[in-house]
Design goal:
three-stranded antiparallel beta sheet, globular, alpha+beta, about 650 residues
Length: about 650
C-alpha cells in the first residue's frame, strides 16, 4: 500500500470483484423462498444476500434521498386519519382483541410517571446542524440550539428549571438584571399570580426570562436521510433540542412501564429474541415502514388521555425538507418517524400489548415480533386492520428458518454467521471487511462455490496487510458459563482489533517477517512474569480516532457550559468535536486471554509513526522515524 487513498480504493475494488462473482450465482434474496431451502442452501443465500445488500460505492447524488423522502410522505398521506373500531366494519374477534389490548395498555400505563432524573441528551444532531460537534458543551453554548415547538415549550421549561446544569446554562444566556429590575418583576408577577407562593412566582419569572431571551419557538422538525441499503435511504426526523429532551424523558418512562408490566428490559431484549428463534414453534414477524405506521389516530384511540396528550404535545406536527431549490413543509398523519425520541418505545408497547392478547409469551423489540405460530395469522390480521403492512421478506411463520433482531436460525444448521458489508473508506474499514470474511469461513457453514469464492478473495485480501497487523482468532469464553463456550448468538465478535487469521497462518506469517520477529523480541523482553500477563505477541493495526476538543479546562473551571458538560457526563474527558474519524496505526500487546493492552503500559517506545492523524493519507513515516519503522513500512508495502 503506497498511498492510503489509492490502497483503500484498490482494496474496495477487490471486494467489489468478489461481490460481482457472488451476484452472478443468482442466489435468492432473503424472503419467502427461504422456507423451501435446505440448511446449506439457506446459509449460502443468506451470506451472499447480506454481503451484497449494503455494499456499494458512495455517491453524492441526491436523487435517491429525494425519492426516499417522497415515498415516506406518500405513505404518511395514506395512513388512517380516524380509528373507531366500534363504528368500523371488522371481524368481531379482531374488535375484541383490539379493545382488550387497549385495556391492557391503559393498565400498563397506569404507573406512567415522568422523572427528571431520566434526563438524556442524545449525541445526534439537533435541528440546526453543528457539523458533527454534538457534545453537551456545544449544544448548550450555542443559543440557536435552544429551540422547541410551541406545544412542547411548557414541559421543556419545567425540565430546565428542575435540572441544575440546564438551569445554569439557560441563565448564562440571559442578560443580567439589576436588583431594581428583579424587584419590579417580582412585584409584577406577585400581582398577576395572587395567592401564589414565592416558589411559584420565582418559576413564573424564570419562565418569562427563558421564553423572552433564550428560547426560539419553532414550527417543528426537519427531514434528513441516512443510508439504509444499496437501493434506498432511511428517512429520519431531526428534532429541536427542547423536543428531543422531552421525548427522551417520556421514552424512559415508557421503558419503565414495559419493564414493570412485562418484565422486559429493552436494553437486553435483542439477545432474548435471538434465543427464542431457535424454537420453531415461534413465528417471527416484521413490518414495512414500521416507524412510520404509528398513525396519530391509533395513538389517540389506544393510549390513555394523559399519556396521549404528552405524546402529541412533544411531537413535531410539521416537518421541512430542502429539495435542492426550496424548503417544503408537510404536516404529518403519523405520530413521528424515526429520529423522534420515543418512536421506538411507543411502537414496542403498542405491538406488545396486542401480541400479549393472543400469546402470553410473545416478545416485541421495535418492529421485530416473536409470537407463537398458531397466533401469527390472527396477529397479522389485527395489525393490518390498524393500517400496518407485514414485511414478507423478513416474516417467517412456518418452515425451518427464522430471523429476528439480526439473528438467523435454520433447523439444519443452527445459528448462521453472516454480516452486512459496507464500502470501506479507511484502513479500519478494510480490516473489518477482512475479519468478517474470516469469521464466515471460520464457522465453516458456507459451502460450494460461495465458499470457494470467499476463501480465494480472503486469501488475496490478507496479502494487503503487513505481518505485524495479524493476530490469531481466540474462542471466546464467559465466566457465567463456567468455562464453556457462550452460545454463538451471544458472542461479541471483535472485528476492529487486528486482522484475524488462523493460528497456523499467524505463525507462518510472523516467522517469515523479520519486523514481526523484532517486535516480538522487543516487547517480550520488557514484560516480566511479575506483570501477570501471558504474552502472545505485539500487533500493530489501524484504529479509528474521533477528533476531540484539544483544550478542556479541568482546574478553576469558569465556563458554565463546561461545568454543565462535566455535570452531565460525570467526567472531565475531552468530548468529541466532530463525527469525522481518522484511522491511526497503534501498537498493542496481545495476551493469551485475547485481551489487547496498550504497549505504553511498559514505557516501550517502538518509534513507530502514527501519533498524529494521517492528513495526507499516507503510510510513510515522519523524518524522525527509526530504522525499525522504515523496515516496518517496507514490509507493509511488499
Amino acid at each position: 500500500m503506497s498511498n492510503t487513498l489509492q490502497s483503500v480504493g484498490h482494496f474496495a475494488r477487490h471486494f467489489q470483484n468478489m461481490t460481482n462473482e457472488l451476484r452472478a450465482l443468482g442466489l435468492p434474496p432473503l424472503g419467502p423462498e427461504f422456507l423451501k431451502l435446505d440448511g446449506d442452501s439457506a446459509v449460502n443465500a443468506l451470506v451472499v444476500h447480506r454481503l451484497l445488500k449494503k455494499f456499494e460505492e458512495p455517491t453524492k447524488s441526491g436523487t435517491r434521498a429525494a425519492t426516499s423522502v417522497a415515498a415516506m410522505l406518500e405513505y404518511d398521506q395514506n395512513l388512517l386519519t380516524s380509528f373507531e373500531p366500534a363504528r368500523m366494519n371488522m371481524d368481531p374477534f379482531v374488535r375484541r382483541v383490539l379493545y382488550n389490548a387497549r385495556g391492557k395498555l391503559h393498565e400498563v400505563l397506569s404507573s406512567f410517571r415522568l422523572s427528571y432524573n431520566d434526563l438524556e441528551i442524545p449525541d445526534g444532531e439537533s435541528f440546526d446542524s453543528s457539523q458533527g460537534d454534538n457534545s453537551v458543551f456545544s449544544k448548550l453554548k450555542r443559543k440557536r440550539n435552544w429551540k422547541v415547538t410551541p406545544e412542547c415549550a411548557s414541559l421543556f421549561i419545567r425540565i430546565v428549571y428542575n435540572t441544575l446544569f440546564l438551569k445554569r446554562a439557560a441563565k448564562a444566556h440571559m442578560p443580567k438584571f439589576s436588583r431594581a429590575q428583579e424587584g419590579f418583576l417580582f412585584r409584577y408577577f406577585s400581582a398577576k399570580l395572587k395567592g401564589s407562593s414565592k416558589q411559584q412566582i420565582g418559576y413564573a419569572i424564570f419562565e418569562w426570562k427563558l421564553r423572552k431571551y433564550v428560547l426560539t419557538i419553532w414550527y417543528g422538525a426537519r427531514v434528513a436521510t441516512v443510508p439504509k441499503d444499496s437501493e434506498k435511504d432511511r428517512v429520519i426526523q431531526v428534532e429541536c433540542f427542547g423536543n428531543m429532551i422531552c421525548q427522551r424523558i417520556i421514552a424512559l418512562a415508557l421503558r419503565r412501564c414495559i419493564n414493570n408490566a412485562f418484565n422486559i428490559d429493552l436494553l437486553h431484549a435483542q439477545d432474548l429474541h435471538k434465543a427464542m428463534i431457535a424454537d420453531l414453534s415461534n413465528a417471527t414477524i416484521d413490518w414495512k415502514n414500521a416507524s412510520n405506521s404509528n398513525a396519530l389516530a391509533l395513538i389517540n384511540w389506544f393510549f390513555p388521555t394523559r399519556v396521549q396528550k404528552l405524546l402529541v404535545s412533544t411531537r413535531s406536527p410539521v416537518v421541512s425538507y430542502y429539495n435542492g431549490a426550496e424548503h417544503e413543509y408537510h404536516g404529518l398523519n403519523m405520530l413521528s418517524p424515526m429520529g423522534n425520541g420515543y418512536t421506538f418505545e411507543v411502537m414496542t408497547l403498542f405491538l406488545l400489548c396486542i401480541a400479549r392478547e393472543l400469546d402470553d409469551f410473545a416478545m416485541v423489540f421495535g418492529d421485530d415480533v416473536i409470537i407463537h405460530a398458531d397466533c401469527a395469522v390472527s396477529y397479522i390480521t389485527c395489525l393490518e386492520t390498524c393500517g400496518w403492512v407485514v414485511n414478507e421478506t423478513k416474516s417467517f411463520i412456518e418452515g425451518p428458518f427464522r430471523e429476528s433482531c439480526g439473528g438467523f436460525y435454520h433447523a439444519d444448521i443452527g445459528y448462521i454467521t453472516s454480516f452486512d458489508f459496507n464500502w470501506p473508506v479507511d484502513h479500519t474499514d478494510c480490516m473489518i471487511l477482512c475479519n468478517k470474511l474470516f469469521k464466515i469461513l471460520e464457522k465453516d457453514q458456507v459451502s460450494g462455490q460461495v465458499q470457494s469464492i470467499i476463501r480465494s478473495y480472503w486469501n488475496e485480501a490478507i496479502k494487503f496487510w503487513p505481518a505485524t497487523a495479524v493476530r490469531p482468532s481466540f474462542e471466546e469464553f464467559d465466566l457465567s458459563t463456567q468455562g464453556r463456550p457462550k452460545p454463538s448468538f451471544l458472542l461479541s465478535v471483535t472485528l476492529d482489533q487486528g486482522v484475524l487469521v488462523t493460528m497456523t497462518k499467524f505463525k507462518n506469517l510472523t516467522r517469515t517477517c523479520p519486523v514481526a520477529k523484532k517486535m516480538y523480541e522487543l516487547y517480550k523482553s520488557r514484560i516480566k512474569p511479575a506483570h501477570g500477563v501471558e504474552f502472545v505477541t505485539a500487533i500493530r493495526f489501524p484504529v479509528k480516532v474521533t477528533d476531540t476538543y484539544r483544550k478542556v479546562p479541568v482546574h478553576k473551571v469558569r465556563s458554565i457550559f463546561w461545568i454543565s458538560q462535566f455535570m452531565y457526563t460525570l467526567c472531565t474527558d475531552r468530548p468529541k468535536r466532530s463525527n469525522k474519524q481518522v484511522s491511526l496505526w497503534r501498537t498493542y500487546i496481545l495476551t493469551k486471554s485475547g485481551n489487547l493492552l496498550p504497549h505504553n503500559l511498559w514505557s516501550v517506545n517502538f518509534g513507530v509513526a502514527g501519533s498524529r492523524p494521517a492528513r495526507k493519507f499516507s503510510f510513510l513515516p515522519n523524518a524522525s522515524a527509526s530504522l525499525v519503522t522504515v523496515k516496518h513500512i517496507a514490509c507493509s508495502l511488499e
